[in-house]
Amino acid sequence: MTATYTVNCSILLTDLPLLDRPGAARTAGFEAVEFWWPFATPTPPDAEVSAFIRAIQDAGVQLTGLNFAAGDMPAGDRGILSNPPMTQAFRDNVDIAIGIAESLGTRAFNALYGNRLDNYSPEAQDDVGTENLAYAARAADRIGATVLVEPVSGAPRYPLTTAADAIRVIDRVHAEHGATNLRLLADFYHLHVNGDDITAAITDYGSRIGHVQIADAPGRGEPGTGEIPLSTYLEQVAEQGYRGYVGLEYKATKPDSFEWLPRAERGATLQPQAETRI
Fold first, then answer.
1. CB-CB neighbours of 203 under 10 Å
2. Nearby residues of 220 by Cβ (< 8 Å), 6 or more positions away
3. Could you list the active site residues?
4. pTM here?
5. What is the pLDDT of residues 1-13, one digit of tens each?
6. How far apart, in Å, are the Cα atoms of 218 and each of 181, 190, 256?
7. CB within 8 Å of 229: residues ≥ 6 apart
8. Does the bond joining 262 to the residue before it have cis omega, within 30 degrees of 0?
9. Which residues pair with 213 in a beta bridge?
10. Do 151 and 190 meet the contact criterion of CB atoms below 8 Å apart?
């Protein structure tokens, strides 16, 4: 698979302390990393933020992507942006994430939509989600960054399961707020597990994909450990003009979780890509 890879250090290298993982990725031959929100709260102390930034800089890697705060992920949370009582927390988090990105040259943010809640209607949550995504898009646009919307598997109450679901959210934010810097995060593992037609999704929305992530299924392991034709899908998105990073967001199942990828292919230089906006 010919691509420019970025290592998701929130799901890989987990035998190491979080701040040691960027350096370990660099030692393994990679030049880029991405993270879920790396703090316990949406608004961590300044000292924790500074330590995270230093860890990236000291490792000599590029932070290509960062999730906005998503709540308690181990407990099942998958985002806070459509949770009405969490609006201020989400917006405060956006401001901190933008500050990190300004320091590190990061230009992509993953905004997990959030689970459905019993005490709010789907319509009320979607209204809040639209407003908060618009807020995030405006903040990201100030630094030339993109906000990503991701379909997710394994979360029964998460409402976005297909590429079309995410595109509908993006289109609403564009229609109501004029935001042009929201794009689809195409995680081929999640789309496959959810039964989406990935080939059709790439054909229909290829020009609107802002980031790609990969893992194999079943098991969410390394590429080549399952049944997903990842090489085929990567070729297809490349044919659609995608030249961005490919996030390695899988669970290690082997002592060397990168053995599937020749070292010479781990640190390739990213090819320039003209941004497509709505």
1. 12
2. 189, 250, 251
3. 150, 249
4. 0.95
5. 568 999 999 999 9
6. 33, 11, 19
7. none
8. no
9. 187, 247
10. yes
- DSSP lists the bridge partners of residue 149 as 184
Write down how long the chain is: 278
37-56: pLDDT as tens digits:
999 999 999 999 999 999 99
Q: Which two tokens stand for residue 149?
A: 């919307």
Report, as an integer, the average pLDDT of 135-144: 98
Model confidence pLDDT, tens digit, residues 174-223: 999 999 999 999 999 999 999 999 999 999 999 999 999 999 999 999 99
